[in-house]
Design the sequence.
């Protein structure tokens, strides 16, 4: 919120600067990436065997793709939060 003043110092009007109506480019890029992951995943519906440390799991490939994307998103989110916290502590 910002206030514009007249020549005598009185506020003339208050404008709200909320940023609504502006599309965040990160949000747009994230949505495009999400759509691409969904399309790619659904095109790969065949069963695959996944070798874990102690067992083998057979599951559709789209489950593996979605799981990998979610884990990658969580790691990216946590790294970003750590970096922001680290910057605040340094300053």
Sequence:
């Amino acid at each position: 919120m910002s206030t514009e003043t007249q020549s005598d110092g009185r506020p003339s009007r208050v404008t709200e600067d909320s940023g609504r109506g502006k599309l965040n480019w990160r949000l747009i890029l994230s949505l495009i990436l999400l759509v691409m992951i969904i399309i790619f995943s659904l095109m790969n519906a065949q069963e695959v065997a996944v070798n874990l440390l102690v067992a083998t799991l057979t599951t559709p490939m789209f489950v593996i793709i979605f799981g990998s994307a979610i884990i990658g998103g969580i790691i990216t989110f946590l790294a970003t939060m750590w970096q922001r916290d680290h910057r605040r502590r340094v300053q």
Notes: The longest strand covers residues 11-15.
